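User: Predict the full complex structure for these chains.
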Amino acid sequence: MNWIRLRLGILAGLLLLAGCGGRGEFPRRPITLVCPWAAGGGTDRVSRQLAVHLEQELGKPVNVINATGGKGVTGHRRGLQARSDGYTLAMVTVELNMLHWSGLTQLDWRDCQPLMSINEDYAALLVRDDAPWHSLAELEAAVRAQPGRLRASGTASGGIWHLALAGWLRQQGLAATDVVWISSAGAGPSLQELISGGLDMVCCSLPEASSLYKSGKVRAVGVMAPERLAGFDEVPTFVEQGTDWSLGGWRGLALPLGTPPDRVEVLERALRRVVTGQTKVMQVLGDGQNHPQTFPEFLQAQGFDSTWRERAEFTEFLAAQDDKFGRLLTSDAMRSVGRDPFPAWAFPAVVSAVLGMSLLALAIGRIRGESSTQGATALPWPPPRRGIIHLGAVLGAMLLYLALSETVGFVLTGGAVLLALLLLFGTRWRQALLIALLVTPAVYQVFANVLRVPLPRGLLGW
Amino acid sequence: MNHALLEAIRQVCSPDVLLVILAAAVYGIFVGAIPGLTATMAVALLVPLTFFLDSVDAVAAIVTTVTCSIFAGDIPATLVRIPGTPASAAYAHDAYALTRQHRHVEALTVSLVFSVLGGMFGTLVLVAAAPLLANVAARFTSYEYFWLFVLGLTCAAVVSDQSRLKGAVALCLGLLLSSVGLGTDYARPRLTLGIEELSTGINFIPAMIGLFGISEVLRNALYLKTQRGEGIVDRNATREVGGEAGADRTKGASEQDEEAGKRGLRRAQREEKTVLGHVLLMAVRRPGALVRSSGIGALVGMLPGAGADIAAWIAYAVSKRFSRHPEQYGHGSVDGLADATGANNAALGGAWIPALVFGIPGDSVTAIAIGVLLMKNITPGPEIFDSVKNPQQATLVYSIYVAFVVTNLLLIPVGLLAVRASSLLISVPRRVLLPIVVLFCLVGAYAMNASYFDVGAMIAMGLLGFVLESRAIPLGPVVLGIILGGEVEHKFVQCVTKSTDWTAFLNSPISIGLAVACLAMWLAPLLMPRRAPKQQAVLNDNG
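Assistant: Here is the predicted structure of the two-chain assembly.
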């Protein structure tokens, strides 16, 4: 028994030691890259690839975290309002220039330290292969002939692709609502609707539609880029077809304001090497051979554009884009675009009404003496007094963890919570201490190293 | 064509690919069993490793990871009622009820065997009918999706047959929770009560961990008897005042569980072999149910936007409707568990159908898989099946099929090991287990989005779950409401913005079929003669 304890004790000690980082040049510990969009999407794929290259260049792990929701507000805010120590990088997308104009957040590009933009994707207009429109002019004529009949999608209403389409319509002297925009979760679901016949056109970037496009299920009427795109050379631009209209999305990296300049430089240097193709990651291609692949090569293979801009240029670009979107989004024609397609209160109101009626019916049933525990197992009531203390302790411990773990760190807070609950539930001191000392660091190490989920660091630097 | 198939078999069965599959299986089970980490996350973490693998290895690794993690999600669902992945939510309550009857080995074996069978069936559907079914999937417009999600909500009615009112309360709560925050269709966030973070909405995974996991921890904490450790007298335990009325009444739940821990384990070890035979026999006896539930799984799985989690709910509800023992559902129904767990694994094969045929991912995992294939210069789409033009790509398609088969075969021994290892948890005394579960819930809620707000939401949901259960309101419909509320509303809004003509809702055969199915689910108990309820026996089983 004793030697098992001893071994466990040594193991705990080793786990504790393993967590202590060394001292030296920035970066000394893993870096977090916050991606504002969900796992599996385009921005996520770019973020994860970029992380691998950066990791190679910086010599420390770069972990991608998806902070999704709120049409991108959540992720942008998380990335740009993090501690400005250089250990949190934010993937920023075109929505940074849009969200504040629609009043969804105060956050705009001035609240970040731009680092570098890494790619630009222009909007394209896609129709089904059996659609009668072959050129922009024909499509425009169809819209003009029957305003409000054609249906389009590509993203949520008010999103970048919606704006691109509406901007083109406006340019042609049509109303933004002459094509009905069906709000959707993204390019994937929209393309599915398009081929199933639920939509007439989809506005999204060409890489997002590449497999359907290459297989001939959808046709591209035009792309809203200044020049034709590499890999899609046969798709004419809007400019070529006589409309001076171009719009696209972009992705870039930024840091929270106030990041020390020397750290900004380290990151910028690494990033520059990545986007200029000086870093290589081994990649086994379809032929079964090993090919060193650079970041721009990855972007091309995935059909993404690989235009990048240096910090100063990116900052100017952000300012210019912000003006452009500001003019677009605050114009009278676009106001209508931001309006809800259906009253937002309707669904919660109906649900609340049903909820209210059900509760009322339950209450009436109770008064009439019907058993309230019928149909499921209800808890014995009243509970033992000791139990109420236990329950309160569990809740309190969790709230304590919530309040303290960010500053104190996971290992200390988690260990304390674990120890306290173990003791409260009647585990002996020595056993409880051993469990807390073993489990907490082990969980931290597994999450940080195997699962690449950095748990809160804290006072221990761990 | 056959040449390509043989080539695929040769490639997948080479030692190095098998090694990759084995490693991915262990990894998948590990990640899937940790609450808060989903199958999607497991695959996303795998991507940097696929750079070093050739395309067959990479695809095999992804297929294996997902298959194993969806199975492994059942392990914490069974043992501590925390679904490891959302796909296990539909039957977490049943699986856990079995554990409380000391039948955890049986429950986990059922999960394993039927996951494998469901996975095999899904593969069969993928192999036999991919191009055909892809054309069906391509017919799904927002109207059909609307009805599909309504069908999903109807499951709540089935789940809460015994008290429709309480089911309605639970479902409405879930729907209300789902409408919190900024939705796709609206310009402003709703129901945020002025809390800015709420505009993100209530994240489903932490909510699920809270509702199922924390509420159970709280219930256990309330009735925990501290002086009864592992059956030996604990010298420190001088605090407990015995003989309190409430404590006595709850003797059933906590005390028995504690005592039976070791007993159950010994019995479990003794019975392990016979359990496997018993479960296999069960599959042989109910071939119809197996085909029905796996079929539902594969069909739902192939629809982009509906996945393994919804498949499991629908399969569970349909299973209950057709069952001869509907009263057991919710109190540890082995049949319900078997059908639903088979459906979620069958959905995985289905998800590859649109991915391979159109290049439209059937779920977030196949989205990542398409990204990996693109990286290997392989573009999914109709030509991928053309073995004359692209012999290499045709081989790859076949190797996906073969990988599914090999994975499911391999899952049996690896899964049995996992079942055995995880059953050890049962012998850990409750006073040690509960604090560790709390820690894992805290970490799991944080892991998804690295957000403290999610941790807070989890705690709040845990409290809500506890209160609801103490009023005997079922939690299943709440979770279903959170999963489907946003989807139903979104599709409805899409439909009404498309046209104001209400008849459009029933304009296609698929829409009508789905609408009839919804109606049938509602009305079935009225149309069929009701058997005398056997509640009493079941409640006793529950301890």
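Chain A touches chain B through 129 residues (CB under 8 Å).
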